[in-house]
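[scheduler] slot 2 assigned
[scheduler] job type: sequence-to-structure, two independent chains
[scheduler] chain ordering preserved from manifest
[runner] begin chain α
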Amino acid sequence: MRPQHQWETRKPSLFGYPSFLYPPPFHNTRLWLSFSSKSSSSDNNNNNNWTIGDTVLVDVHKDGSNMVQGVIQDIRKGGWYTLKLSSADGGEQNQQVKVRKSQLTTATTATSTKLESDTTTENELLLQQLPLEEPVQAIPAMTVTTESSSDDSSTATTAATMTADNDNSSTTTNNLPPPPPPRMDDLDALLQASDKIKAKEDPFLQQLAHHASIAKWVVFTDLHVAPSTLETSLAVIHRVHELAQQRHAGVLFLGDFWHHRGTLRVDCLNAVLHAFRQWTVPMILIPGNHDQVTLGGHSHGLTPLEQSYRVTVDHEDSSGTTIPGPLVFSHPTKLGNALFVPHIRDLAIMESVLQSDMAQSCQALFVHADVTGAYMNDMIVSTGGVHPSVFPSNRPIYSGHFHKPHTVIHNKNKKTADTQEVCIEYLGSPYETSLAEAHQEKALVVLDATQGWKCIERIPMNDIGRKHFKPQSLDELLELHVTTLENNVATATKKTVKEGDRIVLTLPRREVRDLDENTLFQDHTRALRQAGVAVEIREATTTAEAQEGDPASVAETTGATSLEDLSPLSTWARFWEVQQGADYDEEEAMALQEAGLRLLEEMEESEDATSSSSKSTEGSLLATKTNLQLDSVAVEGYGPFPTRVEYPLNDRGLVLLKGTNLDGGSDSNGSGKTTLAMAALWAMTGSADPRPFQDSKVVDILNDSNQNARVSVTGHLNGKPFVITRTKTPKKTGLAFFLDGQDLTTQSAKETMAVIEEKLGVSAPILARTMFHGQHALNELLEATDAKLKEELSLIVPLELWQGAGTMARSKGRTATKKENELQGMLALRTDDMEKLQNRFNRADADLKEKVEILRVREAEAKSFSAKQQQADGGEDEATKGKSLDSLRRSLEEANSLVETHQNHVSHLKEGRASVLKDIDGGLRIQMQSAQTAAEQLQKAQLEHQSANYEMETLKGAVGKLEKTWQVDLSVGELPSAFNIPEICPTCQQPVTNNGHEHAHESLQEKAEDEIQATLHSLATAQTKLLGAREAVEDAELSRQKLQQEAQIVHEQRDEQATYWDKLVSDAEEALRSSREQVAHLTQSYTAQAERQQEAALAQSKLEAQLNTARQAVEFAKEAHGNLSGELETLKAAVEDLGAQAKEQRRLTKQCAGLSDAFGTRGIQTFVLQNAVRDLQCLSQKYLDDFSDGAQRLQMSLDAGDKISRRALVREPDGSFRERPLATLSGGQWRRCSLALTLGFADLVATRGRLRPSLIVLDEPLTHLDRAGRRDVGKVLQKILGQRDGAGSGGSYSNFATSTILLILQDLAAEELEEAFDCIDEVVKQNGASFVKVDESTS
């Protein structure tokens, strides 16, 4: 327990200047007062270790009604204490009592849980090294409750739980003593106390005085600086400084300056520090939860900002002096008669701060807090925060944390005329971070400290950052127009949009279809998009459409925000709104929802979760909306291009890229047209194939004559020019990235690739799936398995967060199960011990009753004899009594001493028995844990054996397939020496020739032999691996059995030791009984001697001896009974505690299993994917309608069983639609579906604003299509291109921003569509080198 006055030496901060009352560097040895208050020590008396001589209070009646003071005289076994009680006036009573430990309380314990500090005498401030004329005293402290825990303690008490209906709270305490109250700093008192100090010589006091002298303050919060928000955040910083300068004001920031906790990005930190160099106004900051790193919050990301800039002091005494501008408060701090409270995670500590005298005395509060009843967003109301009733009433309270600007109002005294109103105003973020914040009025506030910190001005922040608009109708969309410039100043209103803004209009599907004919809508959306505004048209199903059975109607229309625009916590809440009453009852759903929220918050708080789910958490924070325009690609030494070839890619319309191979063989194959078309993909992702892999696996890209491949892509990213250049040699890969004239190249290609993906806002797989469609990739989505299709959708709808939450839930469940098993084992051992102890106690109880009955009989006999003896000889001479009994008396005393010795020996033996058995029990627990570890290793080895066996069977299947393919017998495990390939190629069914063609016999023979040899080698390797895995299983099983046997041996050793010590105790007790019998014998001898002197005295002595023996026997029985009773009570409590712990672990196991299911593929992952599947089907069907003239339908849905179903329907002659398996579709029907699904997927990516590229590459998209089908594909591509430069009428046909569609076709298909192309380019290969002929007339 900390003393009431604690003087602590505070180390300087990282930059040598105070962050929490830290002294400046040249005063680093100064001592500062850390205020603390008295604390109660009676919360858990079981932790008090009293000693003999301690003064305690005794609860006489065990109900708290009569407390008597006493002094501990002896500490006995089983939790019993012997006390000497004091009289009412404080004197000694000389009365000794025996009480249990539970009846004792420290005599100095305070009975109140709330302590008032003496503000005049208890707290004194000693500034030893400041030039003081006299010590400064009477620095006000605070009033706190003792339920709070230390900020830096790893174990925090559970916060008080408050409901909205009352102000009562209940606190759950643990077994630890209450921690000291939190530190609070009163800087106003420090400034008042420093009146006689030469303040101008102390920089810290100068800084405090300067900041305290500022009257007006511009306040903002929740900036959330991150790579995706950096540009917007810097604009906010510049605007705040500009507004503060204009008003001669300071700046207050209320937390969450950074977004990612734990690690600061160097580029973000440097940009912020550079921006702050321009500042000239003072600033006060408190850290929010995103800024903090440690549990107590004292280590945070605001520390590097403390010396970011300096301001000039204009006071007369310090004119021209510069001081640090930022002042960071990491502890609750009072300055300017306002209390600044950083984020405090422990609610009990937060409540103690808010209820302190310091908080009650301030005119205003500035906090970063979660308040019960506040809106986390438009959907969720906080239920687990600080209750509003805890805050002081009738004063301004401003808070950060939640992004929606709103006010929480609470009336404390609703039934009285004396209204005490609590108003907590959330200022909200200064810019919109997601669609969920659309139409929120973002603003800064200006406060006047001289007017009680009241708001005197609100400054709208409508022109910084991306704005989101959700018009409720088409008419509202048409009312939106681009911001105009008046006198070179942008004018922003609720109906104006600017470049980078986002508009999302949700309409019934049938209304969306009519938009193609709406010229006004087409012109308006085209103008908005040309101005850089993202316009998204979303389809929603009406109830009428669902009843009509429209195949595209797969979801109900809701006015709420779409799932993809919600935060993880909001999505989790929306999921449970649907689940209640479905798969879960209300109580179970509420419990799982709350547990899931805690788990998600835990993931957010943990550093690992922050790094693993950063993309998910940043998705709702100004997620990057990428408009990617590719201008050109230049290749050199790449594939068949030995010399530099530059190829234009922007604004070329529908381009045919054909090839001519003048080196013989095929007319166009091998010319390099696909290589050129996909070169940009390789430059941007490191993959030459449309499906990206790591760069190190790229092969066959180096030209034979130039072993230095180089591909450069130029273009514009959201209007900013960029250049990406990738180079590769046989031993090295290089990657350079320039954006907007800035070199962003890092020290490795991998790190540069990460920068490219970050700036693009999308991953390499999305680039490949939306822009570059190879002839094999066109079928991948339609052919994809359920798992593969979900993997593709996860590129658009990130599932990493939910998968990570499920993994964490399963991990917690396994931990709980393991703990339960351990507890059950311990419980079984303790239960067995308790049964044995209970039997011993029952025998001791019966023995005690028998001894008491014997004593009663002896006392009756002695009383009767005494009465008879008095009647018989009342006149005996007393002078002659006992003179001949001295020697017997001395012998009897020695025998009694021997009895006491034996009693002590018995006690020592019992203590030794308990100590030995305790050590053995510890070893037994270790053996059991080792056995459990061995079992886990066995399970792991079994899994590896199953994996090896599966690999073996797979390779056997591969060998069988090779036997069938190449018609060869491989059963002996070797390739026959007389093996010859079939005359017909098993791959393409063409005859094998010897004319040097690609189907030449020698080439195929060599290919087949290599493939067979490789597979056989893999099979042999798998057999070896299987044998090794089998041996590992056997070794693990032997280890497990050995450990189990060792545990059994330890258990048997324990029984042997118990028997051995029981024998020692029994022998000692027998010796004790023997010594007592000796005492009885001496007593009888003494009586016999007395009989020889006087017959009457002898009889009386005999009775007294018998009575003494009976009393000793009763005392011994009572002591044994008491000891066993204490041990039994302790053991019963331990058993009950173990049972409760095991029950709690069972509950946690069940809860974690439920959370695992809810976070799993059949839970929320299915829930969040449903919208994506619905949108994908709607968009794909739109293209399929045009590809098939409405004759085909492709229905997709995500059923409750977690499977994405794909159903093909074909129109019959009578106009009805009949379902057909996908495998039975004709080649043309299949191609139409695959093309529609591919374009629908890319359109979905663009619709959700992730990527709107200017280029689409299609390699052989017309395969299997007839003339009409090829013509329909051409029309659709022209529709997509009709949106560029205001041409055509395809303004709402898709969400693409495509200006070039590059088609790679064979000659026959190209000739049929030649007139439809805007440009026809040709790649020519001659003498082993390729070059390109660009259609100059139209490009």
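[runner] end chain α
[runner] begin chain β
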Amino acid sequence: MAELTVSTPKKHHLQDRCVLCGMVFCNVEITPSGRKIKTSVNMNKKLKITKQTVDDLHLVIDMDLTSTDATGICIKCNRLVKGVVEKLQIIKQTLNESIGYSRKLTVKRLLWSPSSSSTTQQPMKKVFSPKVQLWPKTKLKSASELQTMIISPYGKSGNVLQEPSGNTCTQLSTGDNAVRQMATTTEALLQFHRPILPAISEQPNIPNVITETSDKQTKARKSLFSPVSGQATDKKGPKVESFQDFKVHPVSQKEITIGVYYESGKRTVVIENKDHIKMCKVIFYQKNVEKGLMEILETTSKDQFAAYAAKIVKNECETICKRHSDFALTDKTYEGIMEFSWDHLYQDLLLGAPNTLRIVSSMVTSSIPMPVPSKEFHHALFAIGIILHGRNREATTLQYLNGMVLLHGGCTHQDMKRLAKLGVCVFPETVRNKLQSWQSNLDEKLLEVKEKWCKGDSMTYQLVGDNWDKNIVPSYRTSKNSTQSIHLFNVIGVIDRIVIKKEEGTPVRTVDSMTAVDFIPSEGDIDSLQKELTFLVARSVIQNIKQMEDLFGKIYPGHLEHIHSNEAGMKTSQYSLGLFDCDEKKTADVIRLLQNLTEKYVPKKDGEIVEEVFFGGDRLTDEKIQVAQQAMRNADSGLERLEGFISKIEDFHRLMNFLEDMKRLAKLGVCVFPETVRNKLQSWQSNLDEKLLEVKEKWCKGDSMTYQLVGDNWDKNIVPSYRTSKNSTQSIHLFNVIGVIDRIVIKKEEGTPVRTVDSMTAVDFIPSEGDIDSLQKELTFLVARSVIQNIKQMEDLFGKIYPGHLEHIHSNEAGMKTSQYSLGLFDCDEKKTADVIRLLQNLTEKYVPKKDGEIVEEVFFGGDRLTDEKIQVAQQAMRNADSGLERLEGFISKIEDFHRLMNFLEAIHRLSYNTQSSRDRGTVHYYRNLLNARNVKGEVKNSYRANKQLYYTLFDAICCVLFLKKFELDSCDSTIPVPKGIKDWEADQQLQWLNDKCGEIVKEIFPHDLFAELQNVLADPDHEENYWVNSIENDNFKCHFCNSRYKYVTSLKMHEKTKHQVNMSAKVQTTNSLLRQTDELNDYLVSVFRLTALHQNLNSAVDMGDGYRVIRSAKFETPIYNRTNKVKYLIGSVHLTALVSGTLPAHQSKRLIANRFINISGGKNNNLSLDEFVEILNRDTKNATHGFQTKDSIVQHSKEFPHLVHAVKHFDAMCEVKKRKGFHKLPSYKEDVKKVLIDLLSINGLEVRPGRTLHCRKIVQKSSNPFSDCFVGLPVMIARHKPELPFRRLRNKNM
């Protein structure tokens, strides 16, 4: 065998490079065999060299090029060249404008004649002429060839341009002593922004322009317009004439002439601008010059004035926000935050940013400086704190304090994140980290006192503790998820204010010498009590009798003096030591707590107790400490016997200090006070249904726009802060209602024939041939989408062309946003019929369209199955009322789709999931363990989305397996043999090929004969399942053998059993031997796939707003509900099919089908079922009721919560607050599908292998057809619950 050699291909670059930077656009690779391969590497960055590009390069760098196909310029170099060209054009335009401005100045050259002694004005010569060219057309080469250009305003020697008329003006000279060397063409050109003025030769005084009347000479200032007539102090600067007693001899009345002396001569200029004239006068009079100039600039140049003020503020903020600036807002230490004060911040701003403070303060108040402290003072400083936090992320002292206030008040993390977006506080995780880093600061001062105590110091302290109990109520209560009771222990340390020195040798009275008399009041005690009560009675009299108050109110003391009166007014130093894991009622926990506290806080020296520490608390704490000490009495030392503490009973055992955190923030201007918010929300209660009532009025007048109501129960448990036998957990039951405007308008068609329910048979409630055809098309779409999403090759081919939306009759409307209005919470317990009747009466009065006391049209009322049933029960209870309004017939209840999805998955779960099947590969529970889906547990209703995710993962994996098997492939990495040149096909042809392949898979899994057994049984009148149903005649049951008739079917059964010996209870059972001949694993997987496909079809129909597919799905659910004994949702499916098939008129039936969804974000695939939206609203509303602890308070403010929810959503959208994810770590769905796919291929689960069995017998299917044997009892259920009216759809009690 020849030896394999490996060599690196040689790479030869072509001459296809960027003409400036040399970037390679393509190269040549030579393989070991000598083959040349031309590879493009940066062709997407190559630009063709055009004539304009050649001209630009010639202008900028003097490069001569010709445009060829082999050369180019990269995007980056082209952008730089274009930038330089544009800057040159801007500079040239600015220069032309500057020259034009200079020409407009009236510059007067005054000549002095020695023979003339008069002060007559001399004629002025022209200095500028339009014929003079100040900018000669010289070509600028490169930066290295650029000559240095200067402007000579002081009359230095230089070249002079000659006019044809003989007039002169200063030319641009090239002297090296007057200007710095310029680096680039752009820098040189920028020097021409200043006006070009001519040089004026030195002349003596000119009395005809400026008359000097003052001979007094003063010391010259450095200012240009100094009031000095003598020589300037700076020899290099100009001599300035005196402007005292300023007199003007203007050419016109609107100009001032200014003269300035230089060493080389004098120059004068005429100021024509009115504002500039005002400035000259302000400078001349020398009174409040700066203020006068500022006032002029404030009115004439506001933008420039503001720009310079902004520059001052910017510089100040940069200075105080620098690192290590010792600014109050950047100190994030424990002392910096806990000792922060407004005064500290105010002083720092006065020193470091006084102008910033002045500007911000002027926005708040007109009185500068502000009154301290005041509301304006706090608001201004708080605003500065937020602004500086936006500039410097380290300036967070104020934000930390706000975050701690919010956490203390129970603010949720999501709400804190909302406020952190505005800079009000830091993120909750940041606050938690900061608090965690401060744990050692809790007892730092206390341990210092302990160390001194151990060394003999007289300062002491004591501990006080109490139990800390809390009940945590679950958001969703189940048998396993109940209320958690937490029992901890809170301890604080208190420094003794009154220092008692230890007196050695003081005799101690023993307890043995005390008698019972010592424990009752003595004579001295009674005397002391009399004096104390005298004080209390006197205070009471003074406070409650006006005459006594006038006489003694100001002189009677308010404090009864005692031995420690002076110390009683001193503040105490107390330190919270935190919560300890200790249940006070458990002695073992108390012992462990005392051991920890002894180790840390009892003063010790050489292993012995220096002095005992008092430990205070209520009577229970006192008792439990003594019990713990009693339990440890046999230990060796006092420390081990817990004798370092002496327990004592304290005087007051209640928490009294409840601070309102919202009021704290209102003080800073973060929000308004809570009462103000409540008043505003209360004033908006009428806005809840304002739009809905407008639609109702139009509906009453015949308009085609309609709406519907949706409701659900709203339950909440309120746990008391202190539980007693009478103060237990409150269960609150309310009802939440929303109104939804119908997106799709269905016009009422007169004369349309309506099919009656009587003409419907049991076959109409199960899938027909047309329904199966529609299902096959829909599942073809789902299988194709699954294959594209999970097989890389298919994703590359079809990912961008395969549609994401399955078109239906209302696809255009499915992407429209809906208009929904929350109507608030109603005091109604859904389980009580009287409450439901009262609710429906109130809603009928307000929302049912009426005309002349009659119902214009019924309003649909959606909800879950319980809501649907209770509304019908309420209507049944009011059936004997006089009118339709009183019979509550203004509403037609209907079952919504989210609860249908949940219960259908629960039915699938009953047939396919069992925790004992963990060792059966291919089962759902096995894949739950394989994927580590630990959130799949308990009942489906408690973890619906997790269960749905697991079943959909298995569905997608099976879709991929079936697709690979279609091409006889056994690996997910195998290449699928697609037709050659499929990429060149039209998109429709490519989609047709994929749909054909997926359609073949669907027809194999969902053939028409899948429902043949069910259809045959229900269509056969002689089948035993239809035996009793077909005997109904005129609401009576007729005997099959005689003319006897009975009202109840049970009576007929007994009659035929006793008289005619008829027994219909025997049923054929499938034998175990037959089951063992089948492939149980394959039957299981195919059955689960079929059921999950139906569920996903319903779920996608809801997402896409396809009402007809949703209604059609009820026929597929009915047999499964019957098989799994889910009676309530079996009845719901029968009702839903009957409503759209004959119970309702045609236009109402279409309304019921088309308007079953809500869309809050827009998009064809973003629809929600109505009851799912109510569930979301319930959750948000419960979050808004945290501050209410009684049912009355919640009901009182029930109309305010929708506004709060809407305001928070608006805030999230405004500040771009991201929603919380449903998972702590989002799972990789594709990776999970791939794991299941590989496992299914390895076990050949979808290949029929007779004799393969499952260990868990509870999930074994009789066949791969989940609809087999579903007919048992189904005809009777359909006949019993088939409704004749849309109201009172209760069962037929005769059956």
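[runner] end chain β
[qc] chain β: The two ends are 87 Å apart (CA to CA).
[scheduler] slot 2 released
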